[in-house]
Write a structure and sequence with these properties.
Number of domains of chain B: 3
Number of helices of chain B: 10
CATH topology of the largest domain in chain B: D-Maltodextrin-Binding Protein, domain 2
Largest interface: A-B, 26 and 31 residues
Distance between the termini of chain A: 80 Å
Mean pLDDT of chain A: 87
Structural class of chain B: alpha/beta
Number of strands of chain B: 12
Strand content of chain B: 25-35%
Shape of chain A: elongated
Shape of chain B: globular
Number of strands of chain A: 10
Radius of gyration of chain A: 30 Å
Mean pLDDT of chain B: 85
Distance between the termini of chain B: 38 Å
CATH superfamily of the largest domain in chain B: Periplasmic binding protein-like II
Structural class of chain A: alpha/beta
Order of helices and strands of chain B: HHHEEEEHEHEEEHEHEHEHHE
Helix content of chain B: 25-40%
Helix content of chain A: 55-70%
Low-confidence stretches of chain B: 1-39
Largest sheet of chain B: 7 strands, mixed
CATH class of the largest domain in chain B: Alpha Beta
Oligomer: heterodimer
Number of helices of chain A: 20
Strand content of chain A: 5-15%
């Protein structure tokens, strides 16, 4: 025991810790930098880069670290690269860590909900903004545990540097054991030192996790998590306090409507709309996934202020049409004009890069609301609205906040401004999503089955918000929906898609009451039965 | 010269420890100084330093496998230093030619690789000069080889060398040791005689080989007799030396094949040290068998 304590406090071994930490730090920092490069290469749209990164990973993940250490130390000098031992070990460790860290990064990035990425694109975020504001902040949270494990593994792997004369803890321990013959006291002491170091990494990991915890548990709870016997329990927060619930499914949360809905003169409105300019013009649009034709020559004109309901069975191409109008998806033939501007082609007529596409979306101003809400999970309701205004449209913080509060008030959620999406009901989330989509004052708002994912009792509050946007704001909207009654009430025109073509279109009341084609008749009667 | 500077450093350290340290230091040094004073730097060194000036003032890297107390191991009292016969010999060669020595600790099997890659300038680490190894480096031989057979106390398997007595036993050796092929050659012989073959366990350093016997994993470890003696000295209740055997090698200093001038200089310096009697004094200082003493020779192959 006395010997063990003697070796535990021996300066010679303690100095070895420093070398061990140097090698580990070089390995982790270098590995992180190379890992970021490898991950971006693998995620890039260029096949050559991805292939190169994959090849690197195969080689460096598939060969033992000890060989890589010896290679860097003993083989590189033959081609004139003679690194000092610690640096050689650090380089080898970094080269070995890089593929593992790259995979953690890639898993984190791919793990972020696709819908949120889509929503970011629809809001006109460039790939860079999307990465730094939406993907990275969420990915990093999920990657911390894996990074912690990787850091511990790198620290232990640094002991292999002992084979290339790096005077780290393990090499010092073995030399000391050889000269003193106190084999076990020394190895227990060095084992305990390693435990102390890896334990410190575990503590750092937990602190970072707690610090990044979006739910911001009380400080006491946060300390509790540091205890080894503490089990993580997901917090089951009530959506809201009892007094916040409304009997009429959230509609009462909304401020009172301005004009009375039933006073609208449909004939006069139709006449007025006919004289308006074209907001969206679709000509001969064709699109296919592999061999499956999704859109087969769609022609559609939507005038400013018009509300168009897209009806049709699932798979009829409704969502795809909306995504094309926002240019989230490309197409094979035909053209789409929004506000007179033809989408998707630069001045010279060549295809746009993802970054140019994003800028185009932001300039043209097409808002989009998704079936699954697709709110940014790490941002509060207010930030979901204000963030994109700042990042995409360059608003000041105060302007963006004012706009966000104003819109939240309009959708009846000003009291939930600081709530995270996961603490909101589906209806509330969709209302925030609508507010987010209209925040930059888009010229057209596309709504892709905005109530399909909602529980029946939450449908009304969302429909009410959309109804008011149509009537109070005169916003141009294209809504794909299965809500026939809503379509009849709000839409000026109904367009019925089937098998990628428009089978019938016309004033909402006419088409819904007296469909002409058999396809429309069959579809509408099937919908009415539901 | 070298001895004096070491003593000066030692004195400074003790002086820093306070008046009692200084007093103690004086007593200790009075004890050491008497034999040390008899051994001044070899007189021929001045001429050598003039003849081979290329290494004067340089610092050369000596690759060692510091797991062999007596030859090269860290100083248990001050682990920042390496001590032993080979260490002293290297320092004296350096002093003779005017260079300083730093150390690089590597596994035994990596000694010559480290030299070949240029990560070290010289290897003085109780390595036997064999024809096979001489393909990787030039050797200046300086010591005869006596191997000891380390076994568990009482020699339960009655092993007395790398011979038929080892059939069926487990032998611990270091990767790259010359004893390894000798045990391997024994395998078919045992088989022919209808006996079980010996098994070979390969480790990284002496300490691991010795531990293998202490843990009951291996029955024997055949290596340099002084290493074996030191192991027995450290664990007198569990280990013993069965026998010492002569094997037809010499211990050598390895130098790069592409530096014949350096080889020549080291050889000349070593010869001076041998002639002056310093080499014998060093053997005695480290309690090694004086029979190991050997006039410097050369082993090179194309």
């Amino acid at each position: 025991m006395a010997l063990f304590l003697h070796y535990l406090s021996l300066p010679y071994l303690l100095e070895g810790i420093e070398v061990t930490l140097q090698v580990t730090a070089l390995g982790l920092i270098g590995g992180l930098m190379m890992g970021v490069i490898l991950a971006s290469m693998q995620l890039s749209r260029f096949a050559v880069l991805a292939g190169f990164a994959r090849g690197y990973s195969v080689i460096f993940r598939g060969t033992p670290l000890i060989l890589q250490m010896v290679f860097v130390y003993d083989a590189l000098p033959h081609i004139g690269i003679k690194l000092p031992a610690v640096l050689a070990a650090g380089v080898a460790l970094a080269a070995n860590e890089a593929p593992f860290i790259s995979e953690i990064l890639r898993a984190g990035v791919l793990g972020v909900d696709r819908g949120q990425v889509l929503a970011g694109q629809a809001l006109g975020m460039t790939p860079g903004v999307l990465m730094s504001r939406v993907i990275a902040p969420q990915a990093i949270r999920t990657m911390i545990p894996a990074f912690g494990a990787e850091a511990v593994s790198a620290l232990k792997n640094s002991s292999l540097a002992s084979v290339i004369a790096v005077q780290e803890l393990t090499l010092r321990s073995t030399q000391l054991a050889s000269s003193t013959f106190d084999f076990f006291s020394i190895f227990f002491a060095s084992g305990l030192i390693y435990l102390g170091l890896t334990g410190a990494i575990a503590v750092i990991q937990l602190v970072v996790e707690a610090w990044l915890d979006l739910d911001r548990a009380s400080s006491q709870k946060r300390l509790m998590r540091l205890l080894p016997w503490h089990r993580f329990q997901p917090q089951d927060e009530p959506l809201e306090a009892a007094e916040d619930r409304f009997d009429d499914a959230g509609v009462a949360e909304l401020p009172p409507p301005r004009p009375k809905l039933d006073l609208i003169d449909h004939a006069r409105r139709a006449e007025m709309l006919r004289r308006n300019n074209v907001a969206v013009g679709v000509e001969g649009l064709r699109k296919r996934y592999d061999k499956h034709v999704v859109l087969d020559g769609v022609e559609m004109t939507v005038r400013i202020g018009e509300v168009v309901a897209l009806l049709g069975p699932s798979g009829s191409g409704k969502s795809t049409l909306l995504r094309c109008i926002n240019h989230i998806e490309g197409w094979e033939a035909g053209s789409i004009r929004v506000g007179g501007r033809r989408l998707g082609f630069g001045d010279a007529g060549k295809k746009l890069s993802p970054r140019e596409l994003a800028n185009e979306r932001a300039e043209v101003g097409v808002g989009m609301v998704f079936q699954q809400f697709n709110l940014f999970g790490h941002l509060t309701a207010k930030e979901n609205i204000a963030g994109p205004l700042r990042w995409v449209h360059g608003w000041s913080r105060s302007d963006a906040d004012r706009r966000a509060f104003g819109l939240l008030e309009r959708v009846g959620l000003s009291r939930r401004a600081d709530a995270l999406p996961r603490h909101l009901s589906g209806g509330q989330q969709q209302r925030v999503a609508i507010a987010r989509a209209i925040a930059p004052n888009p010229s057209v708002l596309l709504l892709d089955e905005p109530t399909s994912a909602l529980d029946p009792e939450l449908v009304n509050e969302v429909l009410e918000v959309i109804r008011r946007l149509a009537i109070e704001d005169g916003l141009t909207m294209i809504i794909s929906t299965h809500q026939l009654r809503f379509a009849e009430e709000v839409a000026d025109r109904v367009v019925l898609l089937s098998g990628g073509t428009i089978v019938e279109e016309g004033p909402a009341r006419e088409v819904l009451a007296r469909p002409k084609t058999t396809v429309a008749q069959r579809f509408l009667s099937a919908m009415a039965e539901e | 010269m070298r001895k004096r500077s070491f003593i000066e450093a030692f004195m400074r350290r003790l002086a820093a420890a306070g008046p009692w340290g200084a007093v103690l230091g004086t007593i200790v040094i009075a004890g050491i100084c008497a034999p040390a004073a008899a051994r001044a730097a070899p007189s021929g060194c001045a001429a050598l330093a003039e003849k081979y000036p290329d290494w004067k003032g340089k610092t050369l890297v000596n690759a060692v496998n510091p797991h062999t107390p007596g030859y090269e191991a860290i100083d248990p009292k001050d682990p920042s230093k390496y001590v032993g016969f080979d260490i002293d010999l290297g320092e004296e060669i350096g002093e003779c030619l005017g260079f300083k020595v730093t150390y690089k600790a590597v596994t035994f099997a990596a000694l010559l690789t480290t030299l070949a890659s240029g990560q070290a300038d010289i290897v003085i680490s109780d390595i036997y000069a064999t024809e096979e190894r001489a393909k990787a480096a030039d050797f200046i031989t300086y010591s005869k080889v006596f191997d000891g057979v380390l076994v568990a106390k009482g020699n339960p398997k009655k092993i007395d060398g790398i011979n038929m007595s080892m059939c069926g036993a487990a032998a611990a050796e270091n990767t790259g040791f010359v004893e390894v092929p000798l045990v391997q050659e024994l395998m078919p012989k045992c088989k022919q005689a209808g006996k079980p073959e010996p098994t070979l366990q390969l480790y990284d350093n002496n300490a691991n080989c010795i531990q293998a016997i202490l843990a009951g994993r291996a029955d024997t470890y055949v290596n340099d007799v002084n290493t074996v003696d030191n192991a027995v000295k450290a664990n007198p209740d569990q280990l013993e030396k069965a026998i010492a055997v002569t094997i037809p090698y010499s211990v050598g200093i390895a130098v790069p094949k592409d530096k014949p001038k350096f080889r020549e200089a080291v050889m000349a310096a070593l010869t001076e040290i041998y002639k002056s009697g310093d080499q014998l004094a060093l053997l005695k200082k480290w309690e090694l068998d004086p029979n190991n003493l050997k006039e410097p020779g050369l082993l090179t192959v194309k």
